[in-house]
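BUG: 3D viewer hangs when loading the predicted structure for this chain

Environment: internal workstation, default settings.
Expected: structure renders.
Actual: progress bar stalls at 90%.

Input used:
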Amino acid sequence: MQITHVEVVPLELKLRQPYQTAYRDAVDRAAAVFIRIDTRQGDVAWGCAAFDPALTGETLEEVTRVCQTCADHAVDLNPLNTEYALAKLAGLAEDSPSARCAFDIAFYDLLGLAAGMPLHRLLGGYRYRIQTSITLGIASVQETVERARQRARQGFRILKLKGGLDPEEDVRRVRAVRAALPRLILRLDADGGYSVQQALDVARALEDSLEMLEQPTPAPEPPGDPSPGQAAPARGLEDLCQVTQYSPVPILADQSLMGPPSALEIAGRRAAHGMSIKLATCGGLRCARQVDAIARAAHMDTMVGCINEPALAIAAGLGLALSSPSVRYADLDGHFDLENDPTVPGFRFEEGWLIATDVPGLGCSVEL
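Structure tokens produced before the viewer hung:
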């Protein structure tokens, strides 16, 4: 298979419903860079670089520039030599995990097209559907309940509430949603906003209400993984370890996890009960599968999560979630509120379930 042309298209996508988190106010739009790869054999594959500036420090201009640099070099690579090709491009996009992710999922799309297999079967084929949560931003108790009812009417059966600004208010919000919708599964994501004591107080107060508590305490600083061969930074994991040791609710590491080195540190220290894997922040499927393997070896659950990202990127995360028995949770909702997503997804959403099809590769088309 020979690549003949790579096109890089940056886009800004609006959100239908703005939201707030512990680390970002009034999020009302998302940026993405689409990658189109044409081959001499007539195949067309797509990739997508989505990013959250607060998590990775990336900007649209920088990501677009790095993607173009990778595009200029990709025409000299055989995409079916996936490990070699992605290792070469990773060296050009060392500081841009979203750009690495874009070419990673595009090359896996090509691999699936060449094999005539959908991504989830190509990667392992463990299941064909998984339930996803939908995220509710930080809001008043009344507004949180109203939004929860709205999402329940849309078919969602798992809700993830954002928190981390006010632990007592978070407890009230979760209890109010539990009272209003007793049959739904609830998760709480503190985005690193609690102290150890606050996290334990919240976990104990909501022991009978929460499926899990995500990233209760701050992640290590500076963000990201160390250079190859160096140990992951320990600062920040001490608090997470303490919460995990005493919490009656399962604890998942999110911002503390940026790639395989940090996954090894979390697993080795039993700093959490599970790990939340985001393709956009760890650099794509190649890296995410390594993290999932580490978690599986450590007998830890994983959740495949996302940021605000097009359905094309969600399809890649879904492929991973469906391929591995280690994946217990899915939080693949980043595309639902995007107004101008050019992706035509191949997967379906039915009563809270994301369901794959047998269309080869990512199974999506893109209308640009």
